[in-house]
């Protein structure tokens, strides 16, 4: 499989990092940075159609983020609830289909309900597919998928001899999404931090110094342009 070097990414995944540092450098609390980050989410979702990006997947809260202070975690959860309540109508009108990936069980009941409602509300949309990773970890996702797969084997619904990588892919939270073409991380850190581990096997990576609240649609446009100049071989030799 090869993709033309000239084609842009269909699926961009973003590790939105640097909100805390952005706020602290302004003498503000970390949550101020998260609120500024939420505004960028809005801007980047709207920019996707201009660049042929059909799928945008964003890392909003990781399985490790529970280790932050109780007040930061509570502030983030409140921000997610408010984001869903405030944006739902515009997301629906603008053709955005929203999905959530991650383990919902640990999230509070109200947030879970809002997530279910937004998924249902936007389920007929197809212009941009926005996937928000909430309480998400790549290893946790593979472990949960494996548990479901093992249950199906035990119940006689799945023949273990037929299991291959496509089988496991079908059990992942991302089963309805194509693999990401491009994974971006902001704020100068060059780590993938347990994000889309299985799905990013052939993704291109872009690590940029910009902090997430400074990630404008122009920065996004530059990254997408840069990607279009790369050559992707998926292990093959281009002729
Ligand atoms: C990482 O920055 C960012 C997060 C853990 C939260 C991401 C959340 C948002 C961008 C808020 C809006 C999202 C939605 C979906 C409404 P950091 O706090 O680790 O920054 P630091 O590395 O500078 O401390």
In short:
The chain has 239 residues and is α/β, with parallel strands linked by helices. Helices cover 41% and strands 15% of the residues.
Please outline the helices and strands:
Elements: E1 11-15, H1 19-24, H2 30-47, E2 55-62, H3 70-93, E3 96-101, H4 109-121, E4 128-136, H5 138-154, H6 165-171, E5 182-185, E6 204-207, H7 217-228
Helix pairs in contact: 2-3, 3-4
Bound molecules: farnesyl diphosphate (FPP).
What would you note in describing this structure?
There is one protein chain. With 239 residues, this protein is α/β, with parallel strands linked by helices. The chain has seven helices and six strands; from the N terminus they run βααβαβαβααββα. The protein has a six-stranded parallel beta sheet, sandwiched between helices. α2 (30-47) runs parallel beside α3 (70-93) and α3 runs parallel beside α4 (109-121). The two termini are 12 Å apart. Bound molecules: farnesyl diphosphate (FPP). Residues 16-21, 30, 34, 37-38, 41, 60, 65, 79-80, 83, 132, 187, 212 line the site of farnesyl diphosphate. Farnesyl diphosphate binds next to α1, α2 and α3.
């Amino acid at each position: 499989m090869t993709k033309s070097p000239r084609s842009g990414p269909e699926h961009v995944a973003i590790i939105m990092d640097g909100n805390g540092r952005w706020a602290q450098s302004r003498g503000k609390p970390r949550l101020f940075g998260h609120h500024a980050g939420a505004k960028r989410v809005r801007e980047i979702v709207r920019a996707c159609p201009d660049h042929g990006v059909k799928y945008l997947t964003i890392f909003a809260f990781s399985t490790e983020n529970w280790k932050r202070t109780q007040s930061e975690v509570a502030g983030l959860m409140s921000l997610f609830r408010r984001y869903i309540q405030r944006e739902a109508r515009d997301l629906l009108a603008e053709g955005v289909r929203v999905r959530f990936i991650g383990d919902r069980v640990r999230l509070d009941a109200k947030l879970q309900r809002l997530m279910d409602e937004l998924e249902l509300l936007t389920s007929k949309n197809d212009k941009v597919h926005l996937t928000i990773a909430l309480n998400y970890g790549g290893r946790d996702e593979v472990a949960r998928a494996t548990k479901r797969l093992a249950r199906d084997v035990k119940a006689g619904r799945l023949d273990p001899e037929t299991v291959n990588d496509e089988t496991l892919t079908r059990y992942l939270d991302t089963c309805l999404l194509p693999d990401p073409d491009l994974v971006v991380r902001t704020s100068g850190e060059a780590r993938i931090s347990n994000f889309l581990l299985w799905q990013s096997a052939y993704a291109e990576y872009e690590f940029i110094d910009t902090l997430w609240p400074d990630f404008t649609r122009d920065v996004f446009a530059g990254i997408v342009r840069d990607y279009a100049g790369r050559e992707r071989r998926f292990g093959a030799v281009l002729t």
